[in-house]
Amino acid sequence: MRPDLTRLTRELRGETCPQGVLDKVARQISVDKSSRHWSRQAVFAVCAGLILLGCLSAWRWHAIRDTRERTRLAEFNTRERARVANQAEDALGLIGSVLLDAGARSQKIISDRTVPPLRDSLETAKNKIIQYIEL
Amino acid sequence: MIRELEFKVLCERHSDEIYRFARSLLANQADAEDATQEVLLRLWNHLPKMYPFNLRAWLLRTTRHYCLDQIRRRTHRAAPVLTDDTILDEQPDELAVDPSSAADSSFRLVQARDMLRTLPENLRSVFVLYEVNGLRYREIAEVLGIPVNSVKVYLLRARERLSNLVTQEEPCDRT
Predict the structure, then answer these.
(1) Does residue B103 sit at the A interface (CB-CB below 8 Å)?
(2) Min CA distance, B62 vs chain A (Å)?
(3) Collapsing DSSP states into helix, strand and coil, what is residue B26?
């Protein structure tokens, strides 16, 4: 390379980065670090808040679900009791009617079965009496 | 803590070459300082997942992308580019350094920068990376994303053009 060109490059090689630039970078980094620290804390706080909120809403949802379940169970019990009472009433009615019917039927059967032998025995007795009188 | 120490060491080792590269690509010192700052901040953000063996190439590639992006944005906005001359004109006299002591070296530096600025971006990048920052052909190829042979050709062309410029300047200096 030519000597004058060498001198030119030597001039350019002598340039150094001003200290002010490095100071500015250091300042910027410290600001960035502190803001990052702050933002990390904020993120942590937000996360903690969200977790707390999630727990609260889960707990509340659970409580509401329990209440609803209890109400539903109570309603079901009431309905069930009413249904059982109705069914018992129906069953008792049926039994009563069956008994009445059976009573009516048994009366007829008794009269059918006992009246002819009684009549026969009365006829026999009358005939015997007549025979006795005639004799 | 280890990250801070590592970053400090990397800053000390690479900040100068980042700044020099940015200075060669951008028109003025303030922009070059901004670029250096931005690249170092990107280094800080990417440091935990960085592969240490191609760090230098990454830094210089990032610097180049940032600088080219800035130039592109400025072209889109069509804002006036502030060169060092315009900035120096705006500075008040009280802030000026003693002219007699700094004049000679700063004049040569300004002259060198002006010469560099006449080169196209690819030739300028190759020249600065090779001659000023001392990268190898392969490293330059990695930074610029071009073949090694192209790096050699660009370097040759950059040297030729600068030599021509220096020869043109010398008679003027002597007169």
Answers:
(1) no
(2) 16
(3) coil
